[in-house]
Amino acid sequence: MSNFEKKFGKYAIKNLSLTLIMCYAAGYVIQLVIPGLFYYLTLNPYAILRGQIWRLVTWILIPPESPNLFFVLLMLYFYYSLGTSLERTWGTYRYNVYLFSGMLFTIAGSFLMMGYCYLFPPADMVQYGPSVFFSAVSALFSTYYVNMSIFLAFAATFPEVQVLLMFIIPIKVKVLGIIYGILLLVNFIQGSVYSRFAMGASLFNFIVFWVTSKNHIHMSPKQVKRRQEFRREVKRNTGVTKHKCAICGRTELDSPDLEFRFCSKCNGNYEYCQEHLFTHQHVK
Predict the structure, then answer these.
(1) Helical pair 204-213 and 193-202, crossing angle rounded to 10 deg
(2) Distance separating alpha carbons of residues 193 and 112, to the nearest angstrom
(3) pTM for this entry
(4) Do residues 44 and 54 lie in contact, with contact meaning Cβ atoms separated by under 8 Å?
C-alpha cells in the first residue's frame, strides 16, 4: 500500500462518501423525472458486452430503495458519518481503495454470474432469453452491499463505539456488526445463486481488509499515552518538530491537524502519521 500510495495517493478523492451520496441524489431525481431511464443504468453484463459500456459506471447512481424518504435520508446521513470517520482514521487513499475495490469486485461478480449462467443455463433464461433474464437479475448487483461493507469496516475499526438503536437503546457497534454478519450468512445460504454472487463479490473488499488488517487496526493504550505525551512536548517546544512520519516524512509543522502515533509492532521507535499507521509494513 505504501509504495502505491506514493505514486497514486495524489489522485485519491477526498470526502468520497459525500460524492457517493451526491450520486444517489442524482439517482433519486432520475427516478422521479425519468423512471424508465433506470432500465439503462443497471449493472447488466449482458448489455455491457453488447456496447452499453456506460453501465459500468451508472449503476452507482441507483440509490437504496425505500418507500420512506425520511428513513432514506437518515440512512444516507448514517453512512456518510461512518465513511467520514473511516477516511479520517485510515487516510483518504486507503478509504478510496476500500470503496472502489468493493465496486470493482461487484462488477467482476456480475460477469462471473453471467458466465455461470451460460455454463448452467437456468430455466428462466432458456424460456425468456438472456436479454430479459439478465435485465431482471442485474438489479441484485447494486451498491447496497458496498454500503454494508462500510458499516462492517467501521464496526471492525471502532468496535466499542455506541449508537442508539431505534434512537433509544444504546448498543455497541461490534454487537450490531456480529448480528449483521449472522444475517448475511443466513441470507447467503438461503438466497439464490445470483444473490450469492452479488453478496460475495460486493463484500469481498471487507474480507480482504479484515485478513490484512485485523492485527493492527486498533490503537493500544500505550499508543494513546505516547500521543498525549508528545502533544504536551510540542506545546512546550513549539519551535522544534517532535513528530515525523517514517513513510512520508511529514511533521506536525506541515499540518496542525495531522496526528502521529508510534507502532507497537515495529522494532524500534518508528512513528507514523494517521494515514500510514494502518498501511505500513512492520519493521522487524
Answers:
(1) 40
(2) 11
(3) 0.70
(4) no
234 neighbors 244 (Cβ within 8 angstroms): no
Q: Identify the CA nearest to 262 among candidates 241, 232, 234, 283.
A: 283
CA dist list (Å): 205 to 54, 139, 140, 144, 249: 23, 20, 18, 14, 29
pLDDT for 52? 93
Distance CA 129, CA 133 (A): 6
CB atoms within 10 A of CB 248: 16
The pLDDT tens digits of the residues spanning 225-255 come to: 565 566 666 655 555 567 788 888 778 777 7
**Alpha helices of the chain — where are they, by DSSP H?**
2-8, 16-33, 45-48, 55-58, 69-90, 92-119, 123-128, 130-137, 144-157, 173-190, 193-202, 204-213, 221-236
